[in-house]
From TrEMBL:
UniProt keyword Signal present: yes
Protein name: Amine oxidase
Domain Amine oxidase: 49-477
Signal peptide range: 1-24
Amino acid sequence: RFLPSSHTCQLILASLFAVCSSLAKDFSQMSAFGGAQLSCDVAIVGAGLSGLSAAQRLLQARPDLRVLVLEAAGDRVGGRTLTKPVRCADGESRGWCFGGSHMAKSHSRMLQLAKDFGLTVSEQPESAGKNILEIGDTIDRYEGETPNLGTLTLLDLDKGIKSLDKLSKTLMESRPSWTNLDGMTLSKKIEKETWRQATRQCLTAIAEPCFDGEPDRISCLQALRIANSAGGFLALLSDGSELRIEEGAQAVCTALAERIGSDRVLLSRELMQVSATEDEVLTPPLAVLSRIRFSPELPAPKRGLIEAAGSFAASPGWMTSAVTAVLTYPTAFWRSQGCSGDILSHLGSPVPGSAMPVAPIALAGEVTSPDGRQPALMVATGYTTEHSWPNAEARRADILSHLARFFPRPEVDGYVDYVEHDWGASPTGASPLPPGAAVGLCDSTGLLQPTGRLHFAGADFATEWIGTMEGAVQSARERPMRCCGGWRLDSEQYKIH
Ligand SMILES: Cc1cc2nc3c(=O)[nH]c(=O)nc-3n(C[C@H](O)[C@H](O)[C@H](O)COP(=O)(O)OP(=O)(O)OC[C@H]3O[C@@H](n4cnc5c(N)ncnc54)[C@H](O)[C@@H]3O)c2cc1C
């Protein structure tokens, strides 16, 4: 409820995930809590990784700036990073990540932040053994990286992956028709590049978690953008994500907020409206942006993109509707079954007695503590259903039944603790992009460009590692952002012009 109260409003930089901008006149806010007025030079909307690291950078460059970070959530900073306590076999509770957690060795900005705050980054203990791929009624247990799909399907898969890789790598330079690519779903593209049904199902199973959405609903261009930002589709598939922060990724946000100063990070402050008086125009990002009123209206391309993202926001995806659960166990029983704990499931048949049309788990993996002493699995539910469970108990029962399809029931049921987080219950505002919307993130009229003094940042607006924690930090710190007579953010530091 921040209503810029008068013509003194200079600018707001909002972004679902961060914002920056500047100038030293007052930006006045009228708080719903007693009408108190707050003034700042730069308002940053969202206390996730992106917003907090933007604030830190600004203050490093100009400690005298009056920077405020406004966060809608009432109880915490961190956004899509979330650490919760889970009880372990030794009776102690330890923090586990339920949102962003894994990093690749190339995620240098996140690794540097962890180092700056004295957090411990460790490698996921190697879990040898077979991986599980479930497609429909078929369950494949395979060693290494190549499922047992048969020679013809594997050749077809290889061809499909390579062609997506090539297209994604050259997306920005050779500029294939972005509009055509944005006019089709990723599934349509997969159909064009492959000829076997089994290949298409396998590629769909792989693509869902990579691109945060169902391939038959997301824009092919958006998927290619995401792959491009990671160095290509193959790089996205093969770049390990084997590192984790022992204290949990949310600890980076907590440390950033402490460094910035608690008086500068305001919780329970949801930006509802951005108004410009005189000559300034202000804005914020994607699905959440569609809930914010802009006065005057944003330019047409930005408005269109925001509306498209907003209308798609209820669509299934990692960040919108998945439930993540951590199960701690006395022993890593999956290993004694010769398995790594990695499960990828696409449209697995429903578990007996469930009201859900498909099996619940889309993805599972071992998240045993770095010292190897506290065995744990993380599971994430799929995107493939708009149905929901009647209650958390029914969901837990289905998840356990699904795991018991692969491992002995007594071991599966013998968990020490089961803790989950329903990302759909507290919407983050993140959204996969439907066909027709992503072109606005590629071209120069899109949201990557500031509007006046309003800048957009956040994981969705990264140019490297879109959709990840690394991307969230990169977008806030390194994309050049300019605003009339104000700030420029470049790869080194914020400079005043
Ligand atoms: C289940 C899950 C698993 C993931 N796994 C990984 C992983 O393993 N590795 C990885 O790198 N990434 C992963 N991610 C993605 C990663 O967590 C995010 O990309 C990153 O944390 C996003 O940071 P951000 O600052 O851009 O946005 P967010 O963290 O979403 O922060 C945005 C903030 O803005 C606030 N906000 C929104 N609207 C308003 C408003 N109107 N007014 C005020 N505040 C507002 C929100 O409450 C939120 O706190 C995962 C995400 C999820 C959900």
